[in-house]
Amino acid sequence: MAATTETMETGLPRGFRSAEQGWPELRRIPRPPHRLPLLGDVLGADRHRPLQDSMRYARELGPIFRRRAFGKEFVFVWGARLVADLADESRFAKHVGLGVANLRPVAGDGLFTAYNHEPNWQLAHDVLAPGFSREAMEGYHGMMLSVAERLTDHWDRHLAAGRTVDVPGDMTRLTLETIARTGFGHDFGSFERDRPHPFVTAMVGTLTYAQRLNSVPGPLAPLLLRAAARRNAADMAHLNRTVDGLVAARRRSGGGGEGDLLDRMLATAHPETGEKLSPENVRKQVITFLVAGHETTSGALSFALHYLALHPAVAARARAEVDQVWGDTPRPGYDQVAKLRYVRRVLDESLRLWPTAPAFAREARRDTVLAGDHPMRRGAWALVLTPMLHREPEVWGEDAERFDPDRFTPAAVRARPPHTFKPFGTGARACIGRQFALHEATLVLGLLLRRYELSADPGYRLSVAERLTLMPEGLRLRLERRPAREEAGDAWARPARAAAGDDRRHHPAEPAEPRSASRCPVRGATD
Ligand code: HEM
């Protein structure tokens, strides 16, 4: 089965370089004390929650440590000084590490899973980056609002029926519809279904399988995961079919996406070379963007809603800001979203505690010494454990576990060393969809805060599910409608959909920012 050759024939993904080869002084790096022969550091490990296991080890072993499972040794790094050094792009680059490499069968040389040397990375990056420029984002705003209104209609129905709402499920509906609609002009009809869309089920299946591949001995994987591999093949076939249908429909219609991501993928030539993406690469990019474009944002929104429900004073402050900034505007404009500074801080603080893509891997471009202390050979790699970087006491204080959005006031951000907040990764391979995710999530949190009081089930204890990404498992909230403001004609409590045309509406009041051809439109100064 072509889908698994990279991982199953050798037990290791292509490009894998063992820690023993890469780190000459590996022995100096702390490891758990009770290592079993052949099996490694598996005592007490929860194979469904490898990230949270690693967080536990990090607390015991310090800012750099290693774990071994079934013959594979991993080096983890989370100390601020070490991570800042790994962010040096002249000496380090993205490593397509185990978890990401396991997604290669489905996402191939798509933007997220491409090896640095693959020419399709630069090609796709240059062709697609303008799809995340400010102008493009402004064009998506109306569609994002429309999808958010489908969510509030859905929640209103639950509220009327006296039911609680399924936060991760509904956030996934929302973010899938948003990326599908803005990027590909497609409607999955998620809010009209009782169960997750089969695309989501297939996606969760492939992500879970990619994670599981790391938790079984490589050579035994074909045997131990035979049934799971069969299901995975069916899931991948479903993803491919969905995407092929979507692309075929667009080709038949002869474009018509008004320059959305799919139009760019199909028709845009590289500005310098004139090259276009191949049909096979388009398939990989569409899958990449549909998956990367919703799963992590859904988790980020879900964690933020969890913390808002848990901290009524924070929610009240955020709501007061929304009322003040948006006033009675039924449909906030593009530029009114970035003005929700406190709501954005709530989001940042949620991403600090639970960065929903919780690790990224870095490899040495040449022989070097990490932070002047740990020699690494060219190709040696380490996993940055973002949730622990974001809890590093020297940076975030002894109360780093406490949820406090004021850690992101401009003064507090300025006072922190660089490279200490990395939910979107780092360098040239950092998240291309960062602004998209932040705009969408801030807008949706604003709309929900304005419309509802949210309360948590007092019995709920945060349980974080892992499938390469993170999600607050089983989170349900009780809603109460905020009293309507009669004098405003209930304008904000019931968005006047018809009043504000829908898709691709630009806000004339917002002047377009001049774009420098030499500057990548998705890389901000904060990266
Ligand atoms: C809160 C939401 C999001 C988070 C936390 C997040 C996080 C990340 C991280 C950590 C990386 C770097 C991975 C690595 O170094 O291996 C990444 C890359 C990427 N993300 Fe996101 N992401 C989010 C939303 C999005 C959205 C909305 C899109 C698309 C619309 C997207 C598309 C991508 C792509 C294509 C890459 C690969 C970029 C490259 O290598 O050139 N992400 N993301």
From TrEMBL:
Q: Which UniProt keywords apply?
A: FAD, Flavoprotein, FMN, Heme, Iron, Metal-binding, Monooxygenase, NADP, Oxidoreductase, Transport
SUPFAM superfamilies tied to this protein: Cytochrome P450
Cite the InterPro entries for this sequence: Cyt_P450 (IPR001128), Cyt_P450_CS (IPR017972), Cyt_P450_E_grp-I (IPR002401), Cyt_P450_sf (IPR036396), Cytochrome_P450_Monoox (IPR050196)
Q: Where is this region: Disordered?
A: 486-527
Q: Which CDD domains match?
A: CYP120A1 (cd11068)
What is the top-level taxon of the source organism?
Bacteria
Gene Ontology MF terms in the entry: heme binding; iron ion binding; monooxygenase activity; oxidoreductase activity, acting on paired donors, with incorporation or reduction of molecular oxygen
Under the heading PROSITE patterns, the entry gives: CYTOCHROME_P450 (PS00086)
Q: Ranges of Basic and acidic residues compositional bias? A: 500-513
Chain segments annotated as transmembrane = none
Q: Which Pfam families match?
A: p450 (PF00067)
Q: Where does this protein have compositionally biased stretches of type Low complexity?
A: 490-499
Enumerate the residues binding heme: C431
Q: What are its cofactors?
A: heme; FAD; FMN
Family the UniProt entry places it in? In the N-terminal section; belongs to the cytochrome P450 family. Belongs to the cytochrome P450 family.
Protein name, entry field: Cytochrome P450
Q: Which source organism?
A: Streptomyces argyrophylli
